[in-house]
Write a structure and sequence with these properties.
heterodimer, A: about 120 residues, mainly beta, seven-stranded mixed sheet, 1 helix, 11 strands, B: about 110 residues, five-stranded antiparallel sheet
Chain lengths: ~120, ~110
Protein backbone atom coordinates (compact mmCIF):
# COMPACT_ATOMS: atom_id res chain seq x y z
CA UNK A 1 0.00 0.00 0.00
CA UNK A 2 1.01 3.58 -0.44
CA UNK A 3 2.92 5.09 2.48
CA UNK A 4 4.06 8.63 2.96
CA UNK A 5 6.93 9.53 5.25
CA UNK A 6 7.33 13.10 6.35
CA UNK A 7 9.97 14.63 8.58
CA UNK A 8 10.80 16.22 10.86
CA UNK A 9 7.61 15.83 12.88
CA UNK A 10 8.28 18.89 15.01
CA UNK A 11 10.46 21.87 14.35
CA UNK A 12 11.15 25.07 16.27
CA UNK A 13 13.08 27.63 14.26
CA UNK A 14 14.05 31.28 14.76
CA UNK A 15 12.84 33.96 12.38
CA UNK A 16 15.18 34.29 9.43
CA UNK A 17 16.48 30.75 9.58
CA UNK A 18 16.12 28.30 6.67
CA UNK A 19 13.62 25.45 6.47
CA UNK A 20 13.57 22.07 4.83
CA UNK A 21 10.71 19.61 5.21
CA UNK A 22 10.97 16.35 3.37
CA UNK A 23 8.36 13.93 2.14
CA UNK A 24 8.91 10.57 0.49
CA UNK A 25 6.35 8.21 -0.99
CA UNK A 26 6.44 4.43 -1.09
CA UNK A 27 4.21 1.98 -2.87
CA UNK A 28 3.62 3.75 -6.15
CA UNK A 29 5.43 5.69 -8.82
CA UNK A 30 4.68 8.97 -10.56
CA UNK A 31 2.17 10.18 -7.96
CA UNK A 32 0.72 13.65 -7.76
CA UNK A 33 2.25 15.28 -4.69
CA UNK A 34 0.93 18.11 -2.54
CA UNK A 35 2.06 20.35 0.28
CA UNK A 36 -0.69 21.70 2.52
CA UNK A 37 -0.48 24.06 5.47
CA UNK A 38 -2.86 24.39 8.36
CA UNK A 39 -2.46 27.52 10.44
CA UNK A 40 -3.65 27.39 14.03
CA UNK A 41 -7.44 27.22 14.17
CA UNK A 42 -7.81 27.33 10.42
CA UNK A 43 -8.46 24.94 7.58
CA UNK A 44 -6.04 23.32 5.20
CA UNK A 45 -4.52 25.44 2.46
CA UNK A 46 -2.85 24.03 -0.63
CA UNK A 47 0.64 25.47 -1.04
CA UNK A 48 2.17 23.47 -3.88
CA UNK A 49 1.32 20.54 -6.09
CA UNK A 50 3.46 18.52 -8.45
CA UNK A 51 2.51 16.17 -11.26
CA UNK A 52 6.08 15.06 -11.97
CA UNK A 53 9.78 15.61 -11.41
CA UNK A 54 10.60 19.31 -11.53
CA UNK A 55 6.95 20.07 -12.35
CA UNK A 56 5.65 22.17 -9.50
CA UNK A 57 2.86 24.70 -9.27
CA UNK A 58 2.44 27.22 -6.52
CA UNK A 59 -1.06 28.01 -5.36
CA UNK A 60 -0.41 31.09 -3.29
CA UNK A 61 2.44 33.60 -3.19
CA UNK A 62 4.49 33.05 -0.09
CA UNK A 63 7.85 32.77 1.51
CA UNK A 64 8.16 29.10 0.66
CA UNK A 65 9.33 27.02 -2.28
CA UNK A 66 9.02 23.38 -3.23
CA UNK A 67 11.18 20.99 -5.18
CA UNK A 68 10.79 17.48 -6.50
CA UNK A 69 14.26 16.19 -7.28
CA UNK A 70 13.09 12.58 -7.55
CA UNK A 71 9.79 10.97 -8.52
CA UNK A 72 8.82 10.13 -4.95
CA UNK A 73 10.51 12.93 -3.05
CA UNK A 74 8.92 16.30 -2.35
CA UNK A 75 10.70 19.00 -0.38
CA UNK A 76 9.32 22.18 1.12
CA UNK A 77 11.88 24.92 1.76
CA UNK A 78 12.39 28.46 2.85
CA UNK A 79 15.52 30.58 2.83
CA UNK A 80 14.33 32.84 5.65
CA UNK A 81 11.40 31.90 7.84
CA UNK A 82 8.78 34.41 8.92
CA UNK A 83 6.60 34.25 12.01
CA UNK A 84 3.61 33.73 9.73
CA UNK A 85 5.15 30.51 8.43
CA UNK A 86 4.26 28.76 11.68
CA UNK A 87 1.74 26.01 11.21
CA UNK A 88 1.13 22.36 10.55
CA UNK A 89 2.44 21.16 7.20
CA UNK A 90 1.09 18.08 5.50
CA UNK A 91 2.40 16.21 2.50
CA UNK A 92 -0.13 14.24 0.47
CA UNK A 93 -0.08 12.00 -2.57
CA UNK A 94 -2.59 10.68 -5.04
CA UNK A 95 -2.65 8.75 -8.27
CA UNK A 96 0.50 7.12 -9.55
CA UNK A 97 1.21 3.86 -11.30
CA UNK A 98 -0.43 1.72 -8.62
CA UNK A 99 -3.45 3.81 -7.64
CA UNK A 100 -3.94 5.39 -11.04
CA UNK A 101 -6.99 7.57 -11.32
CA UNK A 102 -8.78 6.33 -8.22
CA UNK A 103 -8.37 9.77 -6.71
CA UNK A 104 -7.62 8.27 -3.34
CA UNK A 105 -5.48 10.52 -1.20
CA UNK A 106 -2.80 9.58 1.29
CA UNK A 107 -1.36 11.92 3.87
CA UNK A 108 1.93 12.07 5.69
CA UNK A 109 2.03 12.38 9.45
CA UNK A 110 2.54 16.11 9.33
CA UNK A 111 5.25 18.50 10.49
CA UNK A 112 4.52 21.09 13.14
CA UNK A 113 6.61 24.20 12.61
CA UNK A 114 6.92 26.94 15.20
CA UNK A 115 8.79 30.06 14.18
CA UNK A 116 9.94 32.19 17.12
CA UNK B 1 -19.33 31.82 0.23
CA UNK B 2 -16.98 28.85 0.47
CA UNK B 3 -17.16 26.35 -2.33
CA UNK B 4 -17.30 23.56 0.25
CA UNK B 5 -19.29 24.14 3.40
CA UNK B 6 -19.71 21.92 6.43
CA UNK B 7 -22.14 21.92 9.28
CA UNK B 8 -22.09 21.96 12.17
CA UNK B 9 -18.73 23.53 12.97
CA UNK B 10 -18.78 22.10 16.46
CA UNK B 11 -20.62 19.08 17.75
CA UNK B 12 -20.74 17.57 21.21
CA UNK B 13 -22.37 14.20 21.68
CA UNK B 14 -22.85 11.62 24.37
CA UNK B 15 -21.32 8.23 23.90
CA UNK B 16 -23.63 5.99 21.89
CA UNK B 17 -25.39 8.76 20.01
CA UNK B 18 -25.89 8.73 16.25
CA UNK B 19 -23.95 11.58 14.66
CA UNK B 20 -24.42 13.31 11.33
CA UNK B 21 -22.07 15.81 9.73
CA UNK B 22 -23.14 17.54 6.54
CA UNK B 23 -21.19 18.86 3.59
CA UNK B 24 -22.49 20.97 0.71
CA UNK B 25 -20.46 22.04 -2.25
CA UNK B 26 -20.96 24.42 -5.13
CA UNK B 27 -18.25 23.17 -7.48
CA UNK B 28 -18.80 20.42 -9.98
CA UNK B 29 -17.00 17.37 -8.72
CA UNK B 30 -16.68 13.71 -9.57
CA UNK B 31 -15.98 12.55 -6.02
CA UNK B 32 -15.80 13.80 -2.48
CA UNK B 33 -13.43 12.96 0.35
CA UNK B 34 -14.13 12.64 4.03
CA UNK B 35 -11.05 13.05 6.20
CA UNK B 36 -10.44 12.65 9.90
CA UNK B 37 -7.87 14.79 11.69
CA UNK B 38 -6.81 13.60 15.10
CA UNK B 39 -5.84 15.99 17.92
CA UNK B 40 -2.17 15.41 17.10
CA UNK B 41 -2.76 16.73 13.60
CA UNK B 42 -2.43 13.59 11.52
CA UNK B 43 -5.01 13.17 8.79
CA UNK B 44 -6.58 9.92 7.69
CA UNK B 45 -8.68 9.51 4.61
CA UNK B 46 -11.98 7.91 5.62
CA UNK B 47 -13.90 7.77 2.39
CA UNK B 48 -13.77 8.81 -1.19
CA UNK B 49 -17.14 8.48 -2.83
CA UNK B 50 -18.71 9.51 -6.08
CA UNK B 51 -22.21 8.11 -5.65
CA UNK B 52 -24.49 6.36 -3.25
CA UNK B 53 -23.20 5.19 0.06
CA UNK B 54 -20.09 3.66 1.59
CA UNK B 55 -19.74 1.98 4.96
CA UNK B 56 -16.70 1.21 7.04
CA UNK B 57 -17.35 -0.11 10.50
CA UNK B 58 -19.47 2.44 12.34
CA UNK B 59 -18.90 5.10 9.71
CA UNK B 60 -21.27 5.66 6.81
CA UNK B 61 -20.87 8.25 4.08
CA UNK B 62 -23.51 9.19 1.56
CA UNK B 63 -23.47 11.52 -1.38
CA UNK B 64 -26.09 13.02 -3.67
CA UNK B 65 -24.32 14.38 -6.71
CA UNK B 66 -27.43 16.10 -8.08
CA UNK B 67 -28.05 17.96 -4.83
CA UNK B 68 -24.31 18.50 -4.24
CA UNK B 69 -24.57 17.23 -0.71
CA UNK B 70 -22.81 14.60 1.33
CA UNK B 71 -23.23 13.34 4.87
CA UNK B 72 -20.98 11.45 7.24
CA UNK B 73 -22.72 9.38 9.88
CA UNK B 74 -21.24 7.75 12.94
CA UNK B 75 -23.31 5.10 14.65
CA UNK B 76 -22.87 4.21 18.32
CA UNK B 77 -20.38 7.06 18.80
CA UNK B 78 -17.44 6.57 21.11
CA UNK B 79 -15.02 9.03 22.75
CA UNK B 80 -12.27 7.79 20.43
CA UNK B 81 -14.31 9.22 17.54
CA UNK B 82 -13.50 12.69 18.86
CA UNK B 83 -11.64 14.47 16.07
CA UNK B 84 -12.06 17.05 13.35
CA UNK B 85 -13.92 15.72 10.34
CA UNK B 86 -13.26 17.44 7.05
CA UNK B 87 -14.94 17.07 3.70
CA UNK B 88 -12.97 17.96 0.62
CA UNK B 89 -13.75 18.17 -3.07
CA UNK B 90 -11.07 17.56 -5.69
CA UNK B 91 -10.83 20.05 -8.47
CA UNK B 92 -9.46 19.14 -11.86
CA UNK B 93 -7.23 16.37 -13.07
CA UNK B 94 -4.52 17.21 -10.57
CA UNK B 95 -6.86 16.37 -7.68
CA UNK B 96 -6.27 19.64 -5.86
CA UNK B 97 -8.62 19.65 -2.93
CA UNK B 98 -10.98 22.34 -1.79
CA UNK B 99 -11.54 21.80 1.92
CA UNK B 100 -14.50 22.41 4.12
CA UNK B 101 -13.88 24.24 7.35
CA UNK B 102 -14.10 21.06 9.38
CA UNK B 103 -16.40 19.84 12.13
CA UNK B 104 -14.93 19.46 15.60
CA UNK B 105 -16.59 16.47 17.20
CA UNK B 106 -16.33 15.75 20.90
CA UNK B 107 -17.91 12.55 22.16
CA UNK B 108 -18.29 12.49 25.91
CA UNK B 109 -18.39 9.27 27.93
Amino acid sequence: SQTIHQWPATLVQPVGSPLSLECTVEGTSNPNLYWYRQAAGRGLQLLFYSIGIDQISSEVPQNLSASRPQDRQFILSSKKLLLSDSGFYLCAASGGAVFGVTGELFFGEGSRLTVL
Amino acid sequence: KNEVEQSPQNLTAQEGEFITINCSYSVGISALHWLQQHPGGGIVSLFMLSSGKKKHGRLIATINIQEKHSSLHITASHPRDSAVYICAAPRGATNKLIFGTGTLLAVQP
